[in-house]
Write a structure and sequence with these properties.
three-stranded parallel beta sheet; 5 strands
Amino acid sequence: MSRLNYHHLYYFWRVAISGNLTQAARELHVSQSALSSQIRQLEDSMDTRLFERVSRRLVLTDAGQRVLAYAEDIFAKGEELESLLRRGVEPAYQHLRIGMLATMSRNFIEGFIEPLRDNPRVRFSLHAQGMASLLDGLATHQLDLVLTNTQVPVEDRSGPWQVQLLDRQPLALIGPPSLAFHSDFPHGFDSVRWVLPGPGA
């Protein structure tokens, strides 16, 4: 018997898509403490943390991102089933399956999907995976589109897809006050020690 409690999963999903425990509790007509307890029980049943608190904000962990992708699928299918049973017809909206690199900025993802949330004719689900799995999902029609902040590998550029630049993300350089950044950067920084993101970060 599965130990997954779909009631707990639904509460997790609502908190994850709102990004705010107080707002989700208000929308669900439950107390914040009750909602926190439901999510904690889900985390205990899965033996993993789904959220981290960062500066009073709830941020999804890597595991939380993966669970959210499944939850989006599950509850989108539930809405389709309700529509089918209620009206006897397929729902009059498009379901987009969006793949994304798990390392992408949450702010960028939220900005991308914001117009979709306001469109009653569109439902979507998010799937956080590695690049190879994302491209495979496109090739096998399990995904409709993919968001990535890295180049498509050279050996995969001839695949059955096209690439479109959507946006550019700023990159910040942070250093001590004694390190002056000049307009001719990066010249003159050969001897500086750098801390850089690792591959896939």
